[in-house]
Amino acid sequence: MGWFSKSSDDFFLSTVVPQGQGGAQVAQFLGLVNGEAVIGANIFRDMFSSVRDVVGGRAGGYERALAGARESALADAKAAAQELGANGIVGIDFDYEVLGETNGMMLVSVTGTAVRMA
C-alpha cells in the first residue's frame, strides 16, 4: 500500500508525517483525532453482488457505498481536528471492519494526528 496525501481548502491530509524537505512542515502536534462511518448492505446491492461473485467483475454499488463511508469518516476526523485548531491531519490510518450478526454492515474508521502546519 502506498501513501495518501492531499491538500484542499487550506487543510493538509497525509498518511505520512512530512519532514519539511522543501515541502510541508509540521509546526505543532495537537492530538489524536478519528472519524467513523457504518454502512449497511441492502437487498439490491446484495443481489447484484451475488451475481458478481458468480460471473466476476467489480461490485460498483458496494464500491460507491464504501467510498461514501470513507469520505464521511474522513470529514468527521477533519471536523474534530479543526475543533482543536488544526489545519492538517498526518499519520492517517484507514481501517475497515465487517460488523453485524450476518456481516451485513461495514465500519470505516479514520485515525490520525491533528497538526498545525507551518
Automatic annotation (TrEMBL):
A Pfam family matched in the record: YbjQ_1
InterPro entries, per the entry: UPF0145_dom_sf, UPF0145_YbjQ-like
Family the entry assigns: Belongs to the UPF0145 family.
Lineage, opening ranks: Bacteria, Pseudomonadati, Pseudomonadota, Betaproteobacteria, Burkholderiales
Species of origin: Comamonas serinivorans
PANTHER family hit by this protein: UPF0145 PROTEIN YBJQ
Name listed for the protein in its UniProt record: UPF0145 protein CCO03_10985
